[in-house]
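Exam revision sheet. Question 4 asks you to relate a sequence to its structure. Input first:
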Amino acid sequence: MKLAILLSSLTLLLLWPQYSTAERLGDNASANCSGFSLVNTSKWYNELGSIMIIDKVDPSTGIFTGQYYSAVGEAEKFYILVGRYDTASDSPTLGWTVSYQNQYKNAHSTCTWSGQQQCVSGTPTLLTTWLLTSQTEPSDNWKSTNVGINVFTPSPPKI
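Answer key, structure tokens:
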């Protein structure tokens, strides 16, 4: 089990995009990212083609709701998402949760994303780490949760 945790941590370190300060805050970064925020950008895509659609945002509390479509795994169609973000920041931290249960399928799993909205190379970006927990028997709890990263932008990926 310790080896699995070590390998997961090493994988995260190797895969996480290494954005420099210059890339995040380039000369034209604010011009290219102005007008984009969690509040007024309703559709975000990750590098795998999954889609997060934000339907409602309460800028006073930071609570947002919407739908999530997973392009990978055993999910079907859209699932409800609920999240919250830091309303007092130009580069807010945020998090949201999706329980993969809808009228089409119950995958018996829940995923949460935690991250930060930043301007990366002039592109509005959500840099996130996720935890996906799937239902297991008590003897298999050690393998119930997977960890990974996703990078979301307002543009679909070129797959």
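Marking note for examiners. DSSP finds three helices and eight strands in the chain.
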